C-alpha cells in the first residue's frame, strides 16, 4: 500500500483544500486516481487515516527492532511505511542490561556470603577486643 500523503507531498493533517490541490497537481495518473478515490471522499479518508496510523506504528516498531526491507523493496510503494533502523537502545537491550546488573549483584552477594561466617567472627573479635581494651583503660 502506498502512503498517499507521502507520495502527494502533503501532511496527514492537510485540509481538504490542500489535498484537492495536491491531487490536482499530481503528474502521475495512477496515483492521482487512487488519491482522488481514497482521499476525495470523507468516509474513505477517515478509514485511510486509521489504517495509515496503524501502518506508521508498525513502521516505528520495525525500526525499533532494526527490521528493514530487502534491497529489492527499496524505492517502492512497499517501503513507504518503513523507517530507518532505530539506533537508540531498544527496550530489550535495557532489560538485558538490568538483568545483567542484577546477576552481577547476586554473584557479589554469593561471594560475600561465602565469607560471612569469618566476617561475623572477625567483627565479634574486634568488638570483644575493643571492650576489653576499654575495660583496661577505665581501670
UniProtKB/TrEMBL annotation:
The chain crosses the membrane at residues 118-138. Keywords: Membrane, Transmembrane, Transmembrane helix. The keyword Membrane applies. It comes from the Bacteria. This is J domain-containing protein. It comes from Modicisalibacter luteus.
